[in-house]
Amino acid sequence: MSKAAAKPKCPICRKPVTPDYRPFCSKRCADVDLQRWFTGAYAVPAVEQEEVSDGEDEV
């Protein structure tokens, strides 16, 4: 009564993943993903913190 585990799909083209390029299906898709990071298409969200003043006035 258990279903077979769904095979992971490449996040770029949705083809089945191959072990050599996991989590991608090919070197091409891995390179496409890397290019997206280099060009800023992907970004890690960050929250900038306010600077803590040590009580001295800045001039």
Write the layout of secondary structure elements.
Blueprint: H1 27-38
Structure description:
- The chain is elongated.
- It has a domain at 7-38.
- The N and C termini lie far apart (73 Å).
- It is built from 1 helix and no strands.
- The chain has one helix spanning 27-38.
- It is 20% helix and 0% strand.
- The chain has 59 residues and is mainly α.
Overview in brief:
With 59 residues, the chain is mostly helical. It is built from 1 helix and no strands. 20% of the residues lie in helices and 0% in strands.
Give the H and E element order: H
**Sheet of most strands:** none
Radius of gyration: 21 Å
Number of strands: 0
Distance between the termini: 73 Å
Low-confidence stretches: none
Helix content: 10-25%
Q: What structural class do helix, strand and pairing data support?
A: mainly alpha
Helix count, per DSSP?
A: 1
Shape: elongated
Strand content: under 5%
Whole-number average pLDDT? Answer: 87
